[in-house]
Write a sequence for this structure.
């Protein structure tokens, strides 16, 4: 009996020892995370994504939700610039694009966030990030490298052609058919076509109210893509500041002679009334009203999609996409904005275990987490195509891509008001390559005609590969650099806009005024501006 | 002795002092306390340092503004627009008040006044929206009527450089002349009827009575409002000009305030609070000089002044 008891005791001892070691191995890294409040997320702690991350990385995540929107950035900025380091959490997350590079750089200089460069450089730690670089084909940590050469965060990168080739030309297919014309391919054909539109009473209301092409040209407006579309047939018009890169040299498109030729072409269309003169003064609302006027009056316009048209009418499917035009010298480009990485994950100086914090961000950069962030729980809200029954019924949304995933409740992300608990709704990092968004399987039989048109437009622009060899990438300035250029950039922008409008409407003659225009650009500081752009470009990408 | 007098005054008028408490508190909190923030004009603002701790940079911001590209243009645009507006907004409400004053039917008088006062309550954003709707060359009343009579659509009014100032000022006049005239109407109500009767007996016509009886009576009011108007010349409204701005009218529509916004507050990189403060201070100093000058002139010429 005594023997039995001693054996039992021994056994308990051994067992308890065993469980002790099990507990020790199970000790989790505790991380406090600041997140912006999201009313659509049921519970951060029980969230599917939290569960996966906690299990994979052996974390214990504690969330602190702060008011969302601009309040969040203000609060984070206060905490990181003027607050107490001891009050900071381990990790701060944000929605994509909420933290600007200059802000991150200020926080880095304040010393309240720490550089993560050593972990980036350690292949055993940055496993998923290195995999993400491979699957996106983009060395995206370069885009978030600060002027001191360090990386102060983990980024979101969402590659999507829909955003890269945002602006596309759209024309009225009924009017084209009524004129018995073909889709124009060159600037000359486009001009001839608009001329016919202008001269014909296509809507049959007895008034000469047909507009060949229109859009907007005011500061901050959405519908100004028409200008770059036309200019791109002469010289690549660059980004919003008209910056271009050719063979590693940064330039300004409006300082070229091709730009002058392009201006003359567009001026001719204004002069003959093919482009409505109010294009230069309308605001977005007036443009939308014009597009939705009782009788159709507009033949062509430029935007991401014809989504300014009332969705319940016929007109929303009236407009078809048009490929970029070829200019007299054979130039043919489409405005292209490469998907860029933005920091959405910061590790603060108060973090006791920065490597663990980095591992959390690294885990979030995996493909699975990238898809989860957007579509939720695998198996419930989406599946890889290999796991889908009846896969043959689906087609990729951009036809040149293989099908990646099939989603079941996509509408939940943008619309609806139900609580979801499958993901963090894109709070913090996620990295998705082109293949995911372009390869989302759609059931053609259930797809709206409007969606089919949109997908066709993406397909056309993406397959055409109309982007120039190099475009201006993301630039991160030091404080001194941004002090130097901010006023110049703002002045250049408004002067170029003002002069372009004057050239187009005929208040200034293009040939006679060109040299003065160039001289004034110099006067404002165009060469200083270019010099700094080049310095930053070389620092980040050479 | 003095203390006693204060005590008596307090005892007699304490209700009045109590009434004053709220406005004084308002002015202290919203006008005097924020003046401490003016030091930002001479500092380089950083988030860490805030208003009291950022490094001093002296007059750099002011020098930068005076040397800035298009300084002359924004200053002259601001002056022209303000003076044009000041002239219209002085003369028209006075004329309107004089007309209203001569109307003898009280009902008609009240209805007219109500109608002209109403637009004052429209917000600037809505007003500019209305302006753009009405004068749209295709869908607006202006465009539709023009098309109806001539068979073609008019050229775009907002694209005409010369039209900006008129559109800006006359829409302001339309919106505010009724409201501005209230103070003159109140002043005119104080004209002694005996003066009018005496003038009538002497055979003065209606116009003569307006000129020799009404106008001299409200002259101090006019002068005071004019001086105060001059004191606001540099601070012509930001919202309206910004909302009406487009690439074609920028030559006339870029004012100091819109320029500050563009350069200081919406620029690339970060917002430059110090620069914006410096330009605000620059405006305030010029306004102060103008108001002092106008006051002295007015005292010499008409014996009316603010103090």
């Amino acid at each position: 009996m005594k023997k039995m008891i001693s054996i039992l005791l021994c056994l308990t001892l051994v067992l308890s020892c065993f469980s002790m070691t099990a507990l020790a191995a199970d000790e989790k890294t505790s991380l406090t995370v600041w997140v912006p409040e999201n009313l659509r997320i049921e519970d951060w702690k029980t969230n599917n994504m939290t569960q996966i991350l906690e299990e994979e990385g052996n974390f214990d995540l504690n969330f602190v939700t702060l008011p969302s929107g601009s309040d969040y950035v203000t609060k984070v900025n206060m905490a990181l610039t003027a607050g107490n380091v001891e009050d900071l959490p381990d990790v701060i997350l944000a929605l994509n694009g909420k933290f600007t590079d200059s802000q991150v750089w200020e926080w880095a200089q304040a010393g309240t966030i720490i550089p993560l460069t050593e972990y980036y450089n350690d292949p055993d730690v940055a496993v998923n990030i290195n995999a993400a670089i491979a699957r996106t084909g983009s060395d995206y940590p370069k885009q978030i490298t600060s002027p001191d050469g360090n990386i102060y965060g983990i980024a979101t990168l969402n590659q999507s052609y829909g955003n890269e080739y945002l602006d596309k030309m759209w024309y009225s297919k009924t009017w084209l058919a009524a004129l018995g014309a073909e889709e124009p391919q060159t600037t000359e054909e486009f001009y001839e076509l608009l001329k016919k539109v202008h001269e014909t009473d296509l809507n049959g209301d007895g008034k000469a109210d047909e507009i060949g092409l229109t859009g907007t040209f005011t500061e901050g407006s959405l519908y100004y893509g028409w200008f770059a579309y036309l200019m791109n047939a002469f010289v690549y018009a660059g980004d919003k500041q008209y910056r271009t890169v050719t063979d590693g040299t940064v330039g300004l498109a409006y300082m070229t002679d091709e730009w002058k030729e392009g201006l003359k072409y567009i001026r001719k269309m204004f002069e003959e009334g093919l482009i409505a003169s109010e294009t230069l003064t309308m605001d977005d609302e007036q443009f939308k009203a014009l597009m939705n006027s009782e009788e159709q009056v507009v033949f062509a316009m430029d935007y991401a999609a014809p989504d300014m048209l009332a969705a319940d009418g016929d007109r929303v499917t009236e407009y078809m996409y048009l490929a970029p035009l070829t200019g007299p010298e054979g130039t043919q480009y489409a405005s292209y904005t490469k998907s860029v990485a933005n920091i959405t994950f910061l590790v603060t100086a108060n973090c006791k275990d920065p490597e663990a914090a980095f591992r959390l961000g690294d885990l979030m950069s995996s493909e699975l987490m990238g898809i989860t962030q957007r579509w939720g729980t695998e198996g419930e809200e989406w599946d890889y195509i290999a796991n889908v029954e009846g896969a043959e019924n689906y087609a990729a949304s951009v036809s040149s891509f293989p099908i990646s995933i099939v989603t079941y409740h996509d509408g939940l992300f943008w619309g609806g008001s139900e609580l979801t608990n499958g993901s963090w709704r894109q709070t913090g990092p996620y990295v998705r390559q082109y293949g995911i968004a372009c390869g989302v399987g759609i059931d053609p039989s259930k797809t709206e005609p409007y969606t089919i048109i949109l997908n066709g437009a993406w397909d056309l622009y993406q397959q055409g590969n109309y982007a120039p060899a190099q475009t201006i990438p993301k630039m991160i300035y030091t404080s001194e650099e941004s002090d130097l250029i901010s006023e110049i950039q703002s002045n250049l922008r408004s002067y170029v806009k003002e002069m372009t409008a004057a050239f187009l409407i005929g208040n200034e003659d293009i040939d006679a005024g060109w040299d003065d225009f160039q001289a004034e650009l110099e006067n404002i500081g165009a060469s200083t501006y270019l010099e700094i752009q080049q310095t930053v470009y070389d620092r980040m990408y050479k | 002795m003095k203390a006693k007098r204060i005590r008596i005054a307090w005892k007699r008028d304490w209700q009045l002092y109590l009434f004053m408490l709220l406005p004084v508190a308002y002015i202290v909190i919203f006008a005097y306390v924020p003046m401490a923030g003016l030091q930002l004009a001479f500092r380089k603002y950083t988030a860490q340092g805030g208003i009291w701790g950022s490094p001093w940079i002296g007059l750099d911001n002011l020098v930068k503004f005076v040397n800035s590209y298009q300084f002359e243009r924004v200053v002259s645009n601001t002056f022209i627009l303000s003076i044009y507006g000041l002239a219209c907004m002085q003369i028209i409400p006075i004329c309107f008040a004089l007309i209203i004053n001569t109307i003898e039917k009280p009902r008609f008088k009240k209805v007219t006044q109500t109608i002209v006062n109403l637009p004052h309550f429209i917000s600037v954003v809505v007003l500019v929206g209305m302006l753009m709707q009405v004068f749209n060359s295709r869908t607006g009343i202006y465009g539709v009527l023009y098309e109806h009579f001539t068979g073609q659509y008019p050229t775009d009014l907002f694209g005409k450089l010369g039209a900006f100032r008129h559109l800006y000022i006359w829409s302001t006049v339309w919106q505010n002349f009724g409201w501005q005239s209230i103070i003159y109407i109140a002043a005119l109500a104080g004209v002694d009827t005996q003066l009018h009767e005496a003038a009538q007996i002497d055979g003065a016509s209606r116009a003569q009575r307006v000129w020799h009886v009404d106008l001299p009576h409200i002259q101090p009011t006019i002068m005071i409002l004019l001086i105060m108007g001059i004191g606001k010349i540099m601070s012509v409204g930001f919202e309206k000009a910004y909302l009406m701005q487009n690439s074609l009218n920028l030559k006339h529509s870029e004012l100091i305030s819109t320029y500050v916004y563009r350069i200081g507050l919406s620029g690339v990189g970060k917002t430059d609070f110090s620069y914006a403060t410096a330009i605000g201070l620059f405006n305030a100093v010029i306004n102060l000089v103008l108001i002092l000058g106008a006051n002295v002139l007015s005292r010499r010429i008409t014996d009316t002044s603010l103090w």
User: Anything to note?
Assistant: Chain B touches chain A at residues 47-48, 50, 68-70, 129, 132, 136-139, 147, 152-153, 155-156, 158-159, 161, 245-251, 254, 262-263, 266-270, 272 (CB under 8 Å). Chain B has a mean pLDDT of 89. Chain B has one domain: 60-302.
